[in-house]
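Appendix B. One record, verbatim.
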Amino acid sequence: MEPSYFDKVADYPLDSKDNKYFLSVQNSGATIDENGRVVLLTEDVRNGNGRAIKSKLWSPNRVNCFKESVNAVVWLMKDPVMPPVIKITNNDLAATMGATLATKRTSAERLAPGVDPESLVIEPYANPFRTYPLKNDFNAFVSLFNLNDVYCYIFNTGYFMDKKITKETTLEILENLVKDEIVFEKWLPFSDFEIYPVEGFIPDFNDSNYRERFLKSFRNRIEYIQNLNYLKGGFDKLPEEALSSLNKVILEIQGN
């Protein structure tokens, strides 16, 4: 719904056709080409976290409004145990995965000495500016998912284990999802997760390394929610359903 796009330049080489849509660029270098012209030095070669404001014309067939009601919520994560896309079929778990949204620090952040910039961090609902109790958001999302035909998905926009999920893969999945051309299937052994298999990104719980990393990821979420009971005097304590939904995931994979 924004009048323009605010995007990173890390994925756009100097000769990318997308660059013609840049309106302004911040925190990026410039250089002189062989014809003496000043050109952008993108891909974060000089500075980290380069950004650009892009014209809305970058996206084909863009519209400024739509009449359809919301029927999907997508949590964008960078959790390496997550395949490119997951559908969550339990409303409590859907809200809980948003409350334990796992991502990585950005290059824009000034980190304290000793903080690993590659470690996963949890940022509930990707909102670091919340000033009210976290349960308010949790309950609101549960209510939203309880409505008919409002579905929840996870997109992993980082790495699946050690393999990068490209923006092209993510955009293709998103387009096919909007066009209702994706058929999800049960992600065994889970009862509340469904998966759309993407070649090259198939989870395998027979792989002990993957299995242990998956368990660690969800145990971290459980620990995070448990700590909310005490941090800030329990200001952000979540309802019992949040912890129960994560414990169910752990039990299902341990029973596999």
